[in-house]
Amino acid sequence: MPQSRTASSVTGPTRGSEHSLVRAVGVWGLAAAIANVTIGGGIFRLPASVAGALGAAAPLAYLVCAVAMGLIVMCIAEAGSRVSLTGGPYAYVELAFGPFFGFQAGVMLWLLGTYAVAAVATVYADNAATLIPALAGPIPRAALLITTFAIVGGVNMIGVSQGSRLNQVTTVAKLAPLLLLIAVGVFSIQGENLAIATVPASGDVLRASIVLIFAFSGIETALVPSGEVENPSRTVPRAIFVAMIGITVLYVALQYVAQGVLGAALATSATPLADAAGVVLGPWGRTLLLIGVVVSTFGYLSGMALAVPRALYAFARDGFLPAPIASVHPTWKTPHIAIALQLAVTCTLAITSGFGPLAIIANVAALLVYFACAVAALELRRRNVQSGGIPFRVPGAGVVPILACVVIIGLLTSITMAEWSSILVTAAVASGLYVLSYRHRAAKAKA
């Protein structure tokens, strides 16, 4: 799952500042960064969600999602190769359509990060409660989440380096148990569990696919430091494709193993991969997966506690939000008020909602950002923007961005009005803030 952008990326690219950045990130380094932020806590829960919607036909949703993401990442690859400024999707949209739409893209990225963190927090709490039964129940669960967010928030308030180290320590715990489950679980698959009784309706496949977008999101975050990528016109698209192939293979393998081992029980499991490991490896395997999930999701929450609040800080610094939110602690030199406010919002969402609704809203925000990137790719090509060297051109000229937009719109048709409400309210508030803060921002710019 994606992390949010840094403060600099929220407020927009500054050409003069880019010259001081060292272009040292190559194909494999960027691909590894994409994989690291993309493979988050969602994959520990999503196999059950997809199986609940499609049963043994769940791999169909992965195929649809892979095609959709393939089209989307090609658009992001072209936009990224044309815009070498730090900022990722925000920079692409702002350069193509101006500051208002760039700001809206920034707000959607903040919404994506906020709801994604809350969704992963529910995965963390569910697995922790399974590992330690005393943490089950509404009150212990709420206490666990409050305590956890207080810890990761406190660590990140003390300093950026401390939060970064905590995130690095937990990275290996994310992949090791997953690879072990695949390596051993493939020999325990029961063929009858993979039999598809009926072909699901297209609407059901689309609905399941949009849920899976949660597991593929992250590319937009990893591309933020485009100003530090060597030869972006070649590195960005190649790194995206390398990372996407590896991620897709991993996810499909996990779905097949979980479905093949658990069968119908997969759809109702709150800890699907841990339950599959329990069948394959025995009690110790289940415990190992549970520990892996808890450590991995805790690391994700820590990393996001470092990244997402910087958006609120930057919005306040640039005049969109009250100035005190941009306060920097005199000793720790961190945006402590922004961190506290962000974690309070995220913790409240995690306590009051479940994984499914939170993931859907995060996915809608992600798809809107992807749609903006696809349209931006067309506009940047039309204007022949080439700030990062000879740009990568999407195979199929102007057809792929259009197809990407069509696929995104198709996925969004499965979203209900109730699910749209949070997105629409956020966009309306963002528009109001943009208009109301115009004079204040103009005065700050002249100062």
Low-confidence stretches: 2-22
How would you characterize the largest beta sheet? none
Shape descriptor: globular
Structural class label: mainly alpha
Query: What is the number of beta strands?
Result: 0
* Intertermini distance: 39 Å
| SSE pattern, N- to C-terminal | HHHHHHHHHHHHHHHHHHHHH
Number of helices: 21
How would you state the average pLDDT, rounded? Answer: 81
Walk me through the topology:
Layout: H1 7-11, H2 15-18, H3 27-38, H4 46-54, H5 58-82, H6 89-97, H7 99-131, H8 138-158, H9 160-169, H10 172-185, H11 202-216, H12 219-222, H13 232-262, H14 272-281, H15 283-307, H16 309-317, H17 336-352, H18 355-382, H19 399-412, H20 417-436, H21 438-446
Helix pairs in contact: 3-13, 4-11, 5-11, 5-13, 5-18, 5-19, 6-7, 6-18, 7-15, 7-17, 7-18, 7-20, 8-9, 8-15, 8-17, 9-15, 10-13, 10-14, 10-15, 11-18, 13-14, 14-15, 16-17, 18-19, 18-20
Account of the protein in words:
This protein is mainly alpha-helical and 447 residues long. α16 crosses α17. The two termini are 39 Å apart. Mean pLDDT is 81; it is low at 2-22. It is globular, with a radius of gyration of 21 Å. It is built from 21 helices and no strands.
Brief account:
The chain has 447 residues and is an all-alpha fold. The protein is built from 21 helices and no strands.
Question: What key phrases describe this protein's structure?
Answer:
447 residues, 0% strand, globular, disordered N terminus
